[in-house]
Amino acid sequence: MDVFTGRLLTRSRLEVMRQRGDEAGLTRALRSPDPDLRFYAISALGELRVAGAVPELAAILNDTTISGLRFAAARSLGAIGEPAVPALVPALSHPDPEVRWMAALALGDVGGSHAAVLLRPLLSDNDTYVAGRAGRAIAQAGRPGEEVLAAALSDPSPGVRVQAVRALSRRPHLPGLAALVRSLHHADPYISHVAGQALSRLCYRDPDWIREAIREATDADRVNFSAAVRIAPKPSQLAPLRDLREAAGETWALLPFLDRWFH
C-alpha cells in the first residue's frame, strides 16, 4: 500500500510510473515492504538517472540488513553518475567489505579521473576481493584509470602492485599495454611473472582489442609503447612479447622502430 495515496502499489503501477518518469512516486516506492517492488523501483530510478533519489539509494547500499537490494542500489547509483559520487565516498570505508566493493562497482560505472583517484586507496584493502573489484573499477575509467594503475606499480606494497598489474590487463589502451610491458622488467619477479601471464592471456583472448588499441593510439603513445618493448628482455620475458607481436598482426607495422622485432 502506498501510504501517501492509499492506493495498492503493484508492479504494473510501478511500470506506469517508470514510463511517465514519475520520480517522486518511484522514490516513495523505495519504502515498500515488498522487496520485489523495491528492487523494481531501485532499478527504474537508476534507469531514469534520478539524482534526487541518491540519498535513499545510498541508505539502501549502506544497510547491511538488506543485502539482496544493495547490488541494485549500487548499479543505480553508478548509472546516476556524478551526482551520486558524494554519497558513494563514505561507503568506500564502510566496515562491511560487501558495501565497499559495491561502492567501488558504482564508482567504476561513474568513471572518469575523479572516480579513479577516489578508488586508488582500495587497492590496499585488507579484503582481496574488495581490492580486486577496485582495480577493475579503476580500469573502467579508461586512460585516466590506466595512469592511476601504472603509478600504483611503484607502490611499496606487493599486494597493491599485483592488483594494479591485474587490472591493467583488462582491455587496456596502448599506454596501459606499455605499462604492462614495462612490468615484465619489474624489480619484483612476481610482478614480472603476473604481467607476462596477463599479456599472454590478453593476446589469446582478445587480439582484436590489441589491434584496435594500436590503431586508435596517438603517435606519442606508439613511440612510448615501442620504447617499452625495446628494453632488452630476459629470455623468460620473450614469450609474452612474441604473443603480443602475433596478436598485433598487421598493426605492428604502425609501431615505430619495431619493424624487425622478432623477425
What do you see in this structure?
With 263 residues, the protein is mainly alpha-helical. It has 2 domains: 1-107, Leucine-rich Repeat Variant (Alpha Horseshoe); 169-263. Helix content is 65%, strand content 0%. The protein is built from 16 helices and no strands. The chain has helices spanning 11-20, 23-28, 35-48, 54-62, 67-80, 85-88, 97-110, 112-119, 128-139, 143-152, 158-168, 174-183, 189-205, 207-215, 219-229, 238-248. Residues 1-7 have low confidence and may be disordered.
Q: What is the count of helical runs?
A: 16
CATH architecture of the largest domain: Alpha Horseshoe
Percent range for helical residues? 55-70%
Detail the poorly predicted runs.
Answer: 1-7
Order of helices and strands: HHHHHHHHHHHHHHHH
Q: How can the largest sheet be summarized?
A: none
Number of domains as seen in the coordinates: 2
> Which overall shape is indicated by the principal axes computed on the Cα atoms?
elongated
What is the top-level CATH class of the largest domain? Mainly Alpha
Strand count: 0
What oligomeric state do these chains adopt?
A: single chain
Strand content: under 5%
CATH superfamily of the largest domain: Leucine-rich Repeat Variant
CATH topology (fold) name of the largest domain: Leucine-rich Repeat Variant
Helix/strand class = mainly alpha
Tell me the radius of gyration: 22 Å
